[in-house]
Amino acid sequence: MPLIDIDTRVNTEHEANTTTIRAADTAADDHQIGGEDLVDRAARLKRMINVAPTYTAALSWWTGIAVRRAASAPDTRREVDELEARLLDVPPGTRVLVREGHLVPAVGDPTVRLAAVTALVYEPALGLGIDGHEVLREGSVPLGELLGAAARRATQFTVRIAGPVRADAPALHSQARLLLAGRPVAVVTETTYWWPLLRRAPATMPQYVQTGP
User: Fold this and answer.
1) For 103, how many CA atoms within 13 A lie in the half-sphere containing its CB?
2) Tens of pLDDT along 161-186?
3) 41, 43, 76, 83: which is deepest, by most CB within 10 A?
4) Considering only CA atoms, which of 42, 46, 24 is closest in space to residue 33?
5) InterPro entries attached here (predicted)?
6) pLDDT band, very low/low/confident/very high, at 149 (cuts 50, 70, 90)
7) What would the DSSP string read from start to end of 92-144?
């Protein structure tokens, strides 16, 4: 899906528990979970993604597990177009790092894919030291976690995706900017698969998701 120039809001903090999972743990499917429940789950996860401090924080809270990044292609570099340049606040034609990967359980079966994530990263604005650049190149740490508490997520949109309900099919699509001191340093697009929604729904939601109508 193309980038869309929409600004929004951000953030709060929470932690997720760590458990071990396997692909076989996904016992639920669209035949076992009612359609209304799936709609409700998708709506609640949408709200969480919109306000979570990081995308990985939203997935970790929802699934109850820690997650890590697994590269799906080698990092590349390319020039940004006019829309991407506006979102990153850089001149058109600026070269950025392109990172493509999946989020998978930090412990357990690495073939379980919770989401696909693509990030356009303006490296000079990251302010990383030698160790930070090494972690960036290694690739297993999501960018939001690498930047730490100084980073803020500004979600631009989160939408449902029409299509089949199965673990490896896309359920939600979202886009956000990561900010340091108010300056955008990355534009991130995320596709959440149905796996987290079919596996479980948390019994309680964070207060910042519960607030409001």
Assistant:
1) 28
2) 999 999 999 999 999 999 999 999 99
3) 41
4) 42
5) Chorismate_lyase_/UTRA_dom_sf (IPR028978)
6) confident
7) TT-EEEEEEEEEEESSB-TT---EEEEEEE-GGGT---HHHHHHHHH--S-HH
* Helix/strand/coil for 38: helix
Distance CA 48, CA 16 (A): 14
CB proximity list for 121: less than 8 A, separation 6 or greater: 96, 97, 98, 99, 143, 185, 186
Residue written as token pair 């989020």: 103
- pTM here is 0.81
CA-to-CA distance for 152 and 143, rounded, in angstroms?
11
pLDDT of amino acid 206: 67
Higher pLDDT, 28 or 47: 47
Quote the CA–CA distance of 167 and 49 in Å, as a whole number.
Answer: 19
DSSP code for 9: -
For residue 212, the model assigns a pLDDT of: 53
3 state SS of 160: strand
Lowest mean pLDDT among 22-26, 34-38, 151-155: 22-26
CA torsion sign for 15, 21, 25, 30 is positive
For residue 14, what are the contacts with CB-CB under 8 A and spacing of at least 6? Answer: 53, 57, 61, 206
Strand partners, 160: 172
